[in-house]
Amino acid sequence: MASDQDPVFLITGASTGIGAATARHAAEAGYRLVLSARSEDRLAALAEELGGEQRAIAVAADVTEWADQQRLVERAREAYGRVDVAFANAGFGGPRGFDKGDPDEWKAMVLTNVYGAALTIRATMDALKESRGHLLLTGSVAGRRALKGSLYSATKWAVTAMGEAARQDFNDTGVRVTLIEPGMVDTPFFDSPPEIEALQADDVARAVMFAVQQPPHVDVNEILVRPTDQPN
Fold this sequence. Notes:
The chain is of the alpha/beta class. It has one domain: NAD(P)-binding Rossmann-like Domain (Rossmann fold). 42% of the residues lie in helices and 16% in strands. It has 6 helices and 7 strands, in the order E-H-E-H-E-H-E-H-E-H-E-H-E. The chain has helices spanning 17-28, 40-49, 66-80, 103-131, 151-170, 201-212; strands at 8-12, 32-37, 56-60, 85-88, 134-138, 176-182, 222-225. The chain has a 7-stranded parallel β-sheet with strand order 3-2-1-4-5-6-7, with helices on both faces. The relative contact order is 0.14.
């Protein structure tokens, strides 16, 4: 049964992988969902699966567009009146090697992974302060150690810094900030399946929910989670 008191969980990059898995876990925990990605069809199907408009809404948005991010938060407020958790999860990677890949794809990756995450922080900031809520960002093991020839790794180093910068910016507001740093995850991120037993999206979603479900005075700032067999 829907309740106006149920907390609200906003997720970017929600159509597949970690975002979709987190949406399912959050729904099980009683959250109403605001799901965002560029893929509207997948989003709509996920929102319907999680209970339809009373429990989950789908908002197609490009995280690199400020107007889209503003509209996303406006839709959340219109539908549910609040935002308690914002998960800046949208992002993608590319081939390693500074002589590899398409420069236009590089630009899109930097804009999505770095600028897009920053815009999510800015767009949700007032709502999170009102609810004394929780901001989460998807970082990576690649944001803790540089990978050879990896611009993706550089973007995730930026997200690592952004998580701490945001924590300091939100200090004394009651808002908690958590950086989720997965190792290898078996998601559509990879063109071919990992050679080791990788993390599943559900494994990362459980880490997200662990941070979110701590008491209000406990702020889990970073969770770095690797597959047991990942060597570095």
